[in-house]
Amino acid sequence: MDDAKAARVAADPRYRELVRRRGRFTWALTGVMLVAYLGFILLIAFDKAFMARPVGTGVTSIGIVAGFAVIMLAIVLTGVYVRRAARDFDPLVAALRADQGA
Fold this sequence. Notes:
- This protein is mainly α.
- The chain is 85% helix and 0% strand.
- The protein has helices at residues 3-11, 13-46, 48-52, 62-100.
- The protein is elongated.
């Protein structure tokens, strides 16, 4: 893409709106993941006894379940992003490309 075409795309209000909306959404998902992961790490660091408690009468600890939950949250958030990108962001990118002749 040449500089003139890049400048036209960057000046398009739809492009700026796309960048703003996608940025806010990705930062929100990042915040959720960081809070979950930081909470997990802080529990490991400061409440080992809680994390070591077995779940029920088995040998699986709360820490294992919490770690699995953090991993599953990452997978779910990835799915949420992919769904939203396919539904909202990708059609807007396609429209911008079609209008700019890219």
